[in-house]
Design brief:
By secondary structure, the protein is of the alpha+beta class. It has four domains: about 120 residues, Potassium Channel Kv1.1, Chain A; about 50 residues, Potassium Channel Kv1.1, Chain A, CATH 3.30.710.10; about 140 residues, Voltage-gated potassium channels. Chain C (Four Helix Bundle (Hemerythrin (Met), subunit A), Up-down Bundle), CATH 1.20.120.350; about 90 residues, Helix Hairpins. The protein has 20 helices and eight strands. The strands form two sheets. The protein has a five-stranded mixed beta sheet with strand order 1-6-5-8-7. The chain has a three-stranded antiparallel beta sheet with strand order 2-3-4, with no helix packed on it. A hairpin with a 4-residue loop joins strand 7 and strand 8. Helix 13 packs across helix 15 and helix 17 crosses helix 18. The longest helix is centred in the last third of the chain and has 26 residues. It is flat, with a radius of gyration of 35 Å.
Length: about 450
């Protein structure tokens, strides 16, 4: 049971309050309320005891004073005044969360107003409504729309809501949490700060700028060297590998920087097993492997043909492309994108299931609709898979298309269904992106 009112109900409550009436004896003398840790009905809450000046006492319950006229159950009802807005609930409802401020009788006792028989908090009222609903119904914490997230987080910490619930709220709101672990030795800590945290010093910022420039340079070299005009620079006139090739020289410089950077970070890292579990560190190590594999192959044979064949190994060239992900360490925007897609996996899986079902449905329908038509492009249901994908994504290469009137109707329905299916993950990704982008400065960093 919960009652919320914006009006001052103190006069009404005073007529039905047992504690305030009992705080004043027949002679006008004040009695006082003490606390006891005695367990009552398997409840660890504190019990209010009434003691007279002479030592006689009575307990809220069946042993109330003879002039107690209100319902006995009202003794377990708690009134909470939050900046003039009243909330009422059962004591047992609050004590379902004993580690919180309101759930622990000892913690909330200092906010008790004996004269008004209420707990008074000079706090943010709209934020407390969500906190009050959390006590009433449990579940997750939902921030009201008009309440800023930093104010709501402050209120959660004031009322000492469970840490796991606050952490879950942080994750849902898009806080980028990061636990910083530093090396114990002083010189290792300084070098680690230079290599990992550009905002800590001018030297660290300069190292980050150099790393970004060299990464971009290596990506440009990776793309430009595939032009046919530069394909003849890898070999000399005698047929030997050309080690003075500008692309080879620049690539060697870039790889040397990446190698030194990785080795330094491995030496000074505070936790080496955790270091190799980090995706960015795996990218750093993987980005230098193709160069050394190709170089060892060329030096072993000293043949230009081997140099050409080794440089054309597709899997090595693809591995070199992972250097693009090195930019995520220095780019908050790329970090936001990765976190967004990671948080949107559930929505993306739903989209994948929907599009697979549509592909199976429309590929089967178009196959049977085009069966028997002369010159049909759909010869099997797997052929229909490709047609369904390019139609649903509205790409429409034109290599496969229906010829019959029934097939064209199915194709129109397939295109419309594809547009609706593609719209499924858009609001999910947009919401997650807005959350992470709002906190890209790392206000949730630990």
């Amino acid at each position: 049971m919960a009652v919320v009112s914006m009006f001052n109900q103190a006069p009404y409550r005073r007529a039905h309050s047992s504690r305030e009436r009992l705080n004043v004896d027949n002679d006008g003398g004040d009695l006082w309320i003490s606390q006891s840790g005695e367990r009552h009905n398997n409840n660890h809450s504190l019990e209010y005891k009434l003691r007279s000046k002479g030592g006689a006492s009575s307990r809220c319950g069946p042993h109330l004073a003879s002039n107690h006229t209100c319902n006995i159950k009202t003794c377990d009802r708690i009134s909470i005044n939050v900046s003039g807005q009243y909330f009422e609930t059962w004591r047992g409802t609050l004590e379902k969360h004993p580690s919180t401020l309101l759930g622990d009788p000892r913690k909330r006792q200092k906010f008790y107003d004996k004269r008004r028989n209420e707990y008074f908090f000079d706090r943010h009222r709209p934020a407390f409504e969500a906190i009050f609903n959390y006590y009433q119904y449990g579940g997750r914490l939902n921030r009201p729309e008009p309440v800023p997230d930093d104010i709501f987080l402050t209120e959660l910490e004031f009322f000492e809501i469970e840490k796991d619930m606050i952490d879950e709220y942080r994750r849902e709101e898009g806080y980028m949490t990061e636990k910083i672990v530093l090396p114990e030795r002083g010189w290792q800590r300084k070098i680690w700060m230079v290599m990992e945290y550009p905002e800590t010093s001018c030297i660290a910022y300069a190292v980050a700028i150099i790393s970004v420039v060299i990464t971009l340079l290596s990506i440009v070299l990776f793309c430009v060297e595939t032009l046919p005009v530069f394909s003849t620079n890898h070999c000399s006139a005698e047929g030997n590998p050309n080690f003075l090739d500008p692309f080879f020289v620049l690539e060697s410089i870039c790889t040397a920087w990446f190698t030194v950077e990785v080795l330094i970070r491995i030496v000074v890292c505070p936790n080496k097993p955790q270091f190799f579990k980090d995706f960015k560190n795996l990218v750093d190590c993987t980005a230098i492997i193709p160069y050394y594999v190709t170089l060892s192959n060329v030096l072993t044979s000293m043949s230009c043909e081997d140099a050409k064949s080794s440089s054309s190994l597709s899997f090595l060239r693809v591995i070199r492309l992972v250097r693009v992900f090195k930019l995520t360490k220095h780019s908050a925007g790329l970090q936001v994108l990765i976190l967004t897609f990671r948080a949107s996996l559930q929505g993306l899986c739903l989209f994948l299931v929907a599009i697979v079902v549509c592909i199976l449905l429309f590929s089967s329908a178009i196959y049977f609709a085009e069966m028997g038509i002369e010159g049909s492009h759909i010869h099997s249901i797997p052929d229909g898979f490709w047609w369904a994908i390019i139609t649903m994504t509205t790409v429409g290469y034109g290599d496969k298309y229906p010829l019959g009137p029934v097939g064209k109707i199915i194709g129109s329905i397939c295109a419309l269904a594809g547009v609706l299916t593609l719209a499924i993950p858009v609001p999910i990704i947009t919401e997650n992106f807005n959350k992470f982008y709002a906190h890209k400065t790392g206000r949730g960093r630990v």
